[in-house]
Amino acid sequence: MSKIIGSLMKTVYSVGNIPIDMKQKRLDPIKAQTKELKKLLRRASNTSFGEHYNFEEILESDNVLDTYRKNVPIFDYNTMYKNWWFRALNGETFVTWPGKVKYFALSSGTSEASSKFIPITNNMLASIKKASLRQILAATKYDFTLDFYNKGFLMIGGSTHLQYNGTYYSGDLSGISAAKLPFWFEYFYKPGRKISKTTDWNTKLDEMVKKAPSWDIGVLVGVPSWVQILLERIIKEYNLNTIHDLWPSLSAYVHSGVAFAPYEKSFEKLFGKPVVYSESYLASEGYIAYQVNLNKRIMQLIVDNGIYYEFVPFNEDNFDEDGNIKQDCLSLTISEIEENVDYAILLSTNAGTWRYLIGDVIKFVNKEKCEITITGRTKQFLSLVGEHLSQDNMNQAIENISNEFHVEINEFTVAGFRNENSFAHHWYLGCDEALDKDAAIKRIDEHLKVLNDDYRVERDEALRDLYIDILPTQAFYDFMENTAKIGGATKFPRVLKGKRYEDWKDFVSSLNNKR
């Protein structure tokens, strides 16, 4: 029976993948994006937002893309919420998208203290489902056995329990999406609805560890840090050598949220067989990209699925030193971008976001194929004095020293501050092995000077001092738990600023006092 089901599933996936593969080869991203914007504008033309900004007139213009960016201002969360979304939260219909918004995803990201309420419409849920299927279909290109297609999908995310206040449901995006799972996927979905609804993360971990022997998992999905914690606990609980002793069919891991490179060494120790890694780019605001070629660790932008993109060069002309966007900034269409340039993304979507700054920074590695990598977040670049240090730079430097010193560094963060008459960076590394901190900070500095010319120049000028603390990896997770930031969908910020940095310093000080 297993072989019959596996054969049927692979056939369905393969047949479904044919038009998608052919479509990707012939799809013109410029035409696709123009079509998406016109479709969005038409659908929302009778909303309060569409009437206020004259969507119908924009549609009648000779150049819709150019008229749109001239007539509609750029929004961040605060301005979108204050001017528009609060009305949808209060139950008003046809605010920024047709109909009533029944679901709002709660999102705090890694740099904001309070929760954001991101509207999730039925149209957006359909787009997310469509993109998720496309990524699954990509697996048919690889020589998995028929039996693989009958295995479980363990999806480690936030709680699927939704709060209802009489007007709308709110909760983690994974909870909202789980409520709309296709009926046929229930057979494969783990940990199942009961455990997924658990709101306490530690309780959820305990329940997953208990149920692990009864599952036959083929695919893992989740943020690397929490997936690693779960696998380590299962291996310890059942005295295994690797997770493949329990789940021999585990063949693929779909990760998102943070760069995977710092975690790769740790995962290799958890696996007893080769596992295909696949990256996805699913934000609360929409499904933006996924990895098409599993041998090539870059993602392809989804240009024909309910999202219209604009790209703002991430530089001092368009952003202030705190990562806030300037209203007179230059935004580019997909036809105007260049390769290997950092861009902040603006989204206009079928959830009623318009020219919305999502906060992520990407670069195109292949313009023709719309292949991208995530290089950081607008609020998590470090540029006190013009050093323009990106998360991509940081990840590469940490990966380099991890290889050089033969240690695992799964978590790290860095903060910048004024130090008397100059400026300084303070690094915090999560490492459970012996690591000479003086040697580590010296090599980090040397690598960053090679990776980033601006950093190299400023190290000779205003950025005079570097500091480092080596901490147990668990300290990073304990801090998140202490600040109510624990869970399958959360991740530790790579750059600390403001109150979060002050809280972190107090936390580290308390740890040092206990030693």
Layout of secondary structure:
Layout: H1 2-26, H2 29-43, H3 48-52, H4 55-60, H5 64-71, H6 77-89, E1 103-107, E2 116-120, H7 122-138, E3 152-156, E4 163-164, E5 169-171, H8 173-178, E6 189-190, H9 193-196, H10 201-211, E7 217-222, H11 224-237, E8 252-255, H12 264-270, E9 276-283, E10 286-290, E11 299-301, E12 307-313, E13 343-349, E14 356-366, E15 371-377, H13 391-405, E16 411-419, E17 422-430, H14 437-451, H15 453-459, E18 463-471, H16 473-482, E19 495-496, H17 498-514
Parallel strand pairs: 1-5, 3-6, 3-7, 7-8, 8-9, 16-19, 17-18
Antiparallel strand pairs: 1-2, 4-5, 9-10, 10-11, 11-15, 12-13, 13-14, 14-15, 16-17
Helix pairs in contact: 1-7, 10-11, 13-14, 14-15
Molecular structure report:
- The structure is a single chain.
- The protein has 515 residues and is of the alpha/beta class.
- Among the domains are: 2-25 and 124-283, no CATH class; 391-514, GMP Synthetase, Chain A, domain 3.
- The protein has 17 helices and 19 strands.
- It has helices spanning 2-26, 29-43, 48-52, 55-60, 64-71, 77-89, 122-138, 173-178, 193-196, 201-211, 224-237, 264-270, 391-405, 437-451, 453-459, 473-482, 498-514, and strands at 103-107, 116-120, 152-156, 163-164, 169-171, 189-190, 217-222, 252-255, 276-283, 286-290, 299-301, 307-313, 343-349, 356-366, 371-377, 411-419, 422-430, 463-471, 495-496.
- The longest helix has 25 residues, at 2-26.
- Mean pLDDT is 86; it is low at 1-8 and 12-24.
